[in-house]
Structure formats: structure tokens, C-alpha cells
Amino acid sequence: MRQWLCNPSILCTQHLLGEHLEHHMLVGTINKGISIQGYLDNNLLEINLLKDRHDHLAAEMERRGMNHQSPLPDINTSCLPDEQLEVTIDRYKALTDLLSRCPKCKERSSQWI
After folding, report:
1. Helices then strands (H, E): number in the chain?
2. 94 contacts 1 by C-beta, under 8 angstroms
3. With a threshold of 0.90, does the pTM exceed it?
4. Does a structural domain hold residue 2?
């Protein structure tokens, strides 16, 4: 699971769909009370942005002509400690990592950066 937290227009189709799917999986994990500490320790997730980020990804999917029909379930964060809710992602590092890994995202980013 990873939130790239860049402009969704930059994401290639694989990364767009992958991040969208991972949001659904992560909400299920949180709602089941399974630990997500590893994602937080590795700077891969901002819990407070799950809903908004999902909605931005869904909007980009629809902009590309995809048929998004999977609203994100409600997230029960009541069992999570405050320090987990306060973790933030280094967006510059995430974008740099994405562009170094994926030539398609790098090519798309040249239109937006």
C-alpha cells in the first residue's frame, strides 16, 4: 500500500488503479483492527487523507473514461492512536520515487510539472 499523493493526472493507468485498489484494501484493514504501523513507519500512508485521496483518484479514473462504481466505505479510526493519525508523507520524496520507478508516470508528469 502506498499513497503517492501527487496530482492523479500524473499517474499511469497501472499506478492510478493500483493506488485506488489499495485504498479500499487499507480501509478494510483498518476497519478489521489490523495493524498498519509498518505503512506509517515507512512513510507510505496518511490516514486522514484516505477519503479525499480516493475521491481524487476516482475523479481521475472517470476523467479517463473509466467506470468507477466503488465508493470508499466509512473508515473507523477510533481504534487508532493519535500519533498514527498525525503521520504525514514526504510528498517530494514520494514523487521522486514514483518518477524514478515508472517511465510512464515520468512521461505523464512532464505535462504537469
Report:
1. 6, 0
2. no
3. yes
4. no
